[in-house]
Fold:
Amino acid sequence: MTSEATTAEVPGILNPEPPPRPEVKSFHRRRLLGWTGKVKVDRVQGWVSNRRIDLFVRDFRDKFDRDPTSDDIYEFMKGEEQDFELRALARNIAHNGVRVPIILDAGGTLLDGNRRYFATRLAIDNRWAPREDLEDIPAWVLTPEASEEDKLRILIETNFLPSYKVDWPNYIKALVMYEDHYERGQSFDQIAERYGMGKSRVRSMVMAMDLVNEFIAQFDDASDPGKAEQATMAAYRRFVFFEEAHNKLRAQLDGDPEFKERFFEWMLNEKFNNMKEVTRLGEIRSDQEAWDALRKDHPDAVKTAIHIVDDKKLPDLADGERKVKRVIGTLRDLKEWEIAAISRDTMLQLRQVLNEVLRMAAAVNIQRMGTKDAVDPRDLATGSDDQ
Structure:
């Protein structure tokens, strides 16, 4: 322990128990002294200058002519669940506690760990764990001598520079949860709480691993042991494709053995380049022409099949012609007494609609001049018929 650490005063915001200990950390090429210990959740202040909530802070100041308090920020972050995902983190903290210490200045203002702090409050408010288990948050607290420049260095290090942490691949996460569910008998709710994930995502990943197991089993051939290993590695690299197939194609795959067999073969050979191509397989399977194109051994087979499906969704350009001719036929069939019964307002509407159609046709035909289908715009603009 350095003499500086020995003589430095312990920030008063830290709990006396367990005894805080001095610890030096490096931020953006500068070593800073702080104290590691625990702090009461009620003594922490959310950081108003956090860029993640900058728009909220500016809007709040415009409306109320003051900075938001920690309570105001808390209510905002709860309402923006899609952006901050507080509930999943709060469930995880209720189960495991805060594992990465938050960073505070000596006065208790957050420099790093906003989500951990506010998620802890959410877990306490929802009584997902006893308050006494959560109210003391692990923290690293700067000494009172820390400058504004020191705090800025912490901001840069924790928000802009990469942490170099490598998450487990989705395949490994799904495999662990699959074992939790089928081998350890845990429910999706229990797994979601354990790993701090949404229940629907847990279910999706576990069910996708079911599909992966079918995929690997199809190539489990004793005469060619390398095939199963190849399938396993393909699933490892493209697990997200299997999850998408489960979510969007599972009923079709299970009800169509040929479709499933072909899908597995293509996944083994990594035929698909992106998620969109997997998502479109259901439409392709339902169109024989597109399905025939997909089955061809060609590098652009998937793109060709998608184009075939999309081309058939284009509007029938001859439909307008048919509709107008039907209207013309209906008008010509009108009897004199039927015309006499039409009100003035209806006749004015008819005239207005015809003029609008003629103006639109004139504009379109100006763009088409020189083509065999073009009509002289002057003829359309007059609305006359000299024949």
About this structure: The CA atoms of residues 213 and 368 lie 57 Å apart.
